[in-house]
Amino acid sequence: MELFFPERVFFEPVSLNYPLGQKLFHFFESKNVEIIKAPIQKVLNSIPGETENQKYSHAKKTLVITIKKALNLDICKPSADYRFSLVTNCPGNCEYCYLHTTQSFKPYIKIYVNIEDIFNTIIKYIYKNNNNITSFEVASSGDPLAVEHFTGSLAKTIEFFGKLENGRLRVSTKFNNVDSLLNIEHNGHTRFRFSINSKYVIDTFEHNTANFYERIEAAVKVLNAGYPLGFIIAPIMVYDNWKEQYKELFEKLAQKLNLGNIKDSKDAVTFELIQHRFTTVAKNVINKRFPNNRLDMDESKRAQKWGMYGRYKYIYPPEISNEIKEYISMLIKNYFPDSIIEYYT
Fold it and tell me: What pTM value is reported for the model?
């Protein structure tokens, strides 16, 4: 896929006090892109557009270079022990994205340049965990691989974790520009997980992301580079012919990955299974931004589940949810008998 490039880049003045801030400023200064130095409070008012949807479209092509001020880390179960961010939001435009709930009014992409502060925080959390092996998710609030060709931050982070005896990094992505990460001394401490889905879901709902085949090709590269590998099958949707299409997904994965020689449990491919869900807030935003969307968001056909952020989510009712779990688990065990299903939610 074509690499993302922004329409405009905001630099918070404080960001220029950091090496990465300077690097990004000099990079974009040499390109045909609008550069604005301004406090982050002025960003939204400076994004063009007469309507909310126009502003949203331009915001998705806007970078904000800033620092991560709040360095306390949130728990990130079931994915990892904690989560941290190198970026917030991403240039992908997935119609169902849960960030429509948390980032709906600030969909611009923030890049954090105080990397060493973030690394020091990670070390503190490992120490707080009595120096036991502690896992950290880096992509719960945005996809750092989408802007890695500007920042190099993910490569630096993988190298950092490679030197940590008791730190483990978990990366998830819908992008495929992994070439700059293939020769890093990761020491097996970073697990790459590709968010993948049926062709229908990717083609219909996951705009401005790598396609079905590009993600599989990137996964093969990562596997050959010695990284532990995983897949996030999300959101799993029920629609006409869903079973046939998800079977095709696992057939293609098995053909391309050829995992017959992987027997060690620490190298086993992992799967994380997440059924489609939505909140009332997200549904309202989605229907405004994608008025002709084909997402199934009929609350009367769903069950409610209380979310950790104080909102109800609408998930599939138990009989459908159980059918999803049993069918997808069966496919995984048939095509990847030595793999690990980490969770279904």
Answer: 0.94
